[in-house]
Design goal:
The protein is of the alpha+beta class and 264 residues long. The chain folds into 2 domains: 129 residues, Beta-Lactamase (2-Layer Sandwich); 100 residues, 2-Layer Sandwich (Beta-Lactamase). Helices cover 34% and strands 28% of the residues. The chain is built from 9 helices and 11 strands. The strands form 2 sheets. Strands 6, 7, 8, 9, 10 and 11 form a 6-stranded antiparallel β-sheet that branches. A 5-stranded antiparallel β-sheet has the order 2-1-5-4-3. The protein is elongated. The protein starts with 16 loop residues before the first helix and ends with a strand.
């Protein structure tokens, strides 16, 4: 069964009794500890000054630190040193502007390792519109974040390899023919860089004339063929090329590799 998560919606308190009770709870969150401890998410409360006033049992179990150890600004001691300055800045900006805090960071766990958490906290006002404090919740996203970082590392590794081979390489989406990846050599051949070329359709990247010439080959590739062809192109330095277009198995796109053959 999927764990229950707290999802906070809305941030402006009115005279509604149900909503006013949330404001009253933040005045002394410890009095509602039984209620807040029932949530499996890590509940975090702050007062109107931005000082941590309560953490629930789930937070204590996760970090191994009691509400007293996390009070005030002490909770920031559990934030990874590489993330702490950013989190402090984001929190001070949110508090100063009375707007929600939405951030991710590494939080020290009771076993001495760090887990990634998504921290969402919303300002709570009393019936007069005055800030009472912030009610927040953290959910562990370690698996998701680890997968994202691995994918990023893999992308950087591919980028490093692709930028250091004597081949022009690009990957275009088969649906809209937009560039999703290009190594440095390919991008510069057409007057782009590795970032500005991304998202641009092949027609724009290589020009109308070039697109008309290779469009039949692209259609064959999208149909599932591996296509090899030759054509002469003009770049900053005149040269010929022998491109190979190969559809990636299981991917909705095609890879365009070009070996430049400089003309004498």
């Amino acid at each position: 069964m999927k764990p229950l998560e707290i999802r906070i919606i809305g941030h402006t308190m009115t005279s509604d009794p149900a909503l006013r009770s949330v404001s009253e709870m933040l005045d002394e969150p410890g009095r509602r500890a039984d209620f807040l401890n029932a949530f499996p998410s890590l509940v975090w409360c702050a007062d109107a000054r931005g000082l941590c006033s309560f953490v629930n049992q789930a937070w204590e179990d996760y970090t191994g630190r009691s509400p007293e150890q996390e009070s005030g600004v002490l909770w920031l001691e559990s934030v990874h040193a590489d993330d702490r300055q950013r989190v402090v800045r984001e929190w001070e900006e949110a508090l100063g502007l009375r707007r929600p805090l939405d951030t991710t960071y590494r939080l020290l766990r009771a076993d001495g390792t760090y887990g990634w958490v998504h921290h969402n906290a919303l300002p709570v006002n009393d019936e007069m519109g005055r800030l009472t404090g912030y009610l927040g919740a953290c959910n562990d996203i370690t698996d998701q974040r680890t997968a994202e970082l691995r994918a990023l590392d893999k992308e950087q590794e591919i980028r490093m390899l692709a930028d250091n081979v004597p081949v022009l390489i690009a990957y275009f989406d088969a649906v809209d023919l937009r560039c999703r990846f290009a190594n440095k050599a390919y991008a510069r051949m057409w007057g782009w860089d590795e970032q500005s070329i991304l998202g641009r359709p092949v027609r724009e990247v290589i020009g109308e004339e070039g697109y008309r010439e290779i469009a039949p080959h692209i259609e064959r590739v999208i149909a599932g063929e591996t296509v090899t062809y030759e054509r002469t192109v003009k770049v900053l330095l005149a040269g010929g090329s022998s491109p190979v277009i190969k559809k990636d198995p299981g991917k909705a796109g095609y890879t365009h590799a070009v070996w430049e053959a400089a003309q004498k």
